[in-house]
Write a structure and sequence with these properties.
It contains 16 helices and nine strands. With 542 residues, the chain is α/β, with parallel strands linked by helices. Keywords: ATP-binding, Membrane, Nucleotide-binding, Repeat, Transmembrane, Transmembrane helix, Transport.
Length: 542
């Protein structure tokens, strides 16, 4: 669709562009003959007509080019939106480990700079074949009109083009020889140069999840960085079935969130068996809120079921928050949910996961961003009651709720140190909590000697110096290059102004010469008439 419209615009514009390129030269020739030739066959009316045609042609050229540019810009914008949408859809299908192979700068560069280059390429693509065609037709016209000598004028720019390329090649060779070693940098992902490579990279690791039920891990080993020697999870074994609530606890960095990422297949399973039966619903630790209404963030593309929607709102303690908003759940939350607090974002993210009727729910510490009262309501009304028939894996630091879960999994440095009912491993959990508390307390203690001496600040005052400008000039290979550059710029401007002055002097001189010739001719005609009248007088009186 884009290709056909792109070529169609070029085909329609090509004849107009060629016509407005040749017609001014044809009419300009007759117009100049009127001012330069003494015995010109061009009348004053024809000269005025030629001038009018030239002005009209330039007007048509500007109008047609602006219209073409508008259409191509609109087409390029649609093409850019389509490419961006394709990239975003592919990114959403990628695993977290695959995305980590690309830096954020590469992805941003792909979605901004490279897409923008394609935008410009779409606008100026047709000129790749219109330009050579114009050159061929113009050369033919010049040869027919002025002979083969006109080819010399066309060959000079081409010759300078080859000289410039030769100088650039010599310059690159000099830089290569001056370097002690060749430095290579990571090449950016150029979308306009290889669509298939980008598509291959984006599709890398994209897999469809199997619709299965329940979660079972046996001797699973996984790590974020495959090249690293240390594993984030080591020999992890866990089983969760329908109607069972499994709590995962442990210190910060023990691998709790990593376990959920393994279940989501965002981290590759290096060894062991991972079986999932049923659809998954995930509530991340850091809520993701998009620009839209509160209802749209909860539904997240699902069909609206009023009864289920109200149950989810009630279970996630969002009724009072919605009642405080002027427009209820139709209130716009702003970019990244700026209108919501941290606790409200966490509950909206939880409500989104709960509203999706899944078989397995993975909840990554949804109780940490709310107060104790709200946490109690969410745990008992939402997790225990609303999801009582579902398989739920809950990552939490709220140990007061562990008595009401079916199974507790204690993680330490990526290993399962204890698992089972809370009553069986209560001692190990309390010991782990005490160790975490001691580490956090000692980490927050800062030696007093670090505050013995306040930091000193310095402030420079005074007028602005010329050092920055001097450094800027010296950055361009010294004063010699800078002076030559200034001279070349000035010389270029002088040539441009000299061209206009010479053209004006030439036109004025030709116009004055024509007037002088006319006056002389009139004088000679008057003298001739006078002589003839004298001869007739002599004949009459003599």
């Amino acid at each position: 669709m884009f290709g056909f419209r792109l070529i169609l615009h070029g085909v329609l514009f090509c004849p107009v562009d060629i016509a407005v390129c040749l017609l001014p030269t044809i009419f300009l020739k007759d117009l100049l003959n009127y001012f330069t030739l003494q015995q010109s066959s061009t009348t004053k009316k024809e000269a005025l007509f030629n001038g009018l045609i030239i002005s009209l042609v330039f007007f048509i050229r500007a109008l047609s080019f602006t219209t073409l540019l508008l259409e191509l810009t609109s087409l390029a914008m649609k093409f850019r939106i389509a490419c961006s949408s394709l990239i975003y859809r592919k990114l959403l299908k990628m695993k977290s480990t695959t995305i980590q192979k690309f830096s954020l700068g590469q992805i941003v560069n792909l979605l901004s700079n490279d897409i923008e280059k394609i935008d410009r390429g779409v606008v100026f693509f047709n000129f790749l074949w219109i330009g050579p065609l114009k050159v061929i037709i113009t050369a033919y016209y010049l040869v027919v009109t002025y002979g083969y000598s006109s080819i010399v004028g066309m060959a000079v720019p081409v010759l300078f083009l080859f000289i410039q390329k030769l100088m650039a090649s010599i310059r690159r060779i000099e830089q290569f020889l001056l370097l002690e070693q060749k430095h290579t940098s990571n090449l950016p992902l150029l979308l306009e140069s290889s669509f298939h490579n980008v598509d291959r990279n984006i599709n890398k690791g994209a897999e469809e999840s199997d619709q299965i039920f329940g979660v079972s891990l046996r001797n699973v080993n996984a790590k974020w960085d495959i090249t690293s020697s240390n594993s984030n999870l080591t020999d992890v074994t866990i089983t969760a079935t329908s109607g069972e609530l499994v709590a995962v606890v442990g210190a910060a960095g023990s691998g709790k969130s990593t376990l959920l990422q393994v279940i989501l297949k965002e981290i590759p399973n290096l060894s062991g068996n991972l079986n999932i039966r049923g659809s998954l619903s995930y509530a991340p630790q850091e809520p993701w809120i998009f620009t839209g209404t509160l209802r749209e963030n909860i539904l997240f593309g699902e069909d609206m079921d009023e009864r289920k929607y109200q149950e989810v709102i009630r279970a996630c303690c969002l009724e009072q928050d919605i009642s405080r908003f002027s427009f209820g759940d139709n209130t716009l939350v702003g970019e990244k949910g700026v209108m919501l607090s941290g606790g409200q974002k966490a509950r909206v993210s939880l409500a989104r996961a709960i509203y999706r009727d899944a078989d397995v729910y993975l909840l990554d510490d949804p109780l940490s961003a709310v107060d104790v009262h709200v946490a109690n309501i969410i745990f008992y009304e939402c997790i225990r009651k609303h999801l009582k028939n579902k398989c739920v894996i809950l990552v939490t630091h709220q140990v007061q709720f562990l008595e009401n879960v079916d199974k507790v999994l204690l993680l330490d440095k990526g290993r399962v140190t204890a698992s089972g009912n809370y009553s069986k491993i209560e001692g190990l959990i309390k010991k782990a909590v005490e160790n975490c508390t001691e580490k956090d307390s000692s980490a927050n203690i800062i030696p007093l000697k670090e505050y013995d001496r306040p930091s000193e600040t310095h402030e420079d005052r005074g007028s602005e110096t010329l050092n920055p400008y001097k450094s800027y000039c010296l950055a361009g290979h010294g004063w010699t290059t800078t002076c030559l550059l200034v001279i070349f710029f000035a010389f270029t401007q002088v040539l441009v102004n000299l061209y206009d002055c010479c053209l004006q002097i030439w036109v004025d001189g030709k116009e004055g010469s024509a007037n002088s010739n006319t006056k002389i001719q009139n004088f000679l005609d008057d003298t001739h008439v006078l002589k003839k009248s004298n001869f007739h007088s002599y004949d009459c009186f003599g």
